[in-house]
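Box 3.1 A note on notation
Throughout this textbook, protein chains are presented in two layers. The first layer is the amino acid sequence; the second is a token string describing backbone geometry. Keep the layers aligned when reading.
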Amino acid sequence: MADYTRQVLRLLSAAGCYFVRLGKGSHTIWFSPMTNRPFTVAAKIGNRRTANGILKDAGMDAKV
């Protein structure tokens, strides 16, 4: 199974998004300066669709 976690976190950090706090379970809350909204990121991102959904929530057009 593929692991997209490091790749997604690297893209988020490069875009100016930053960690805010721990969320419920194995999720973290990040903030996106592009959308001015917080969004959740799973601790382990196992498939491409989830990875792209997180990037979309952050306001990015990037794809993994």
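The longest helix spans residues 5-14. The chain is about 30% helix and 25% strand.
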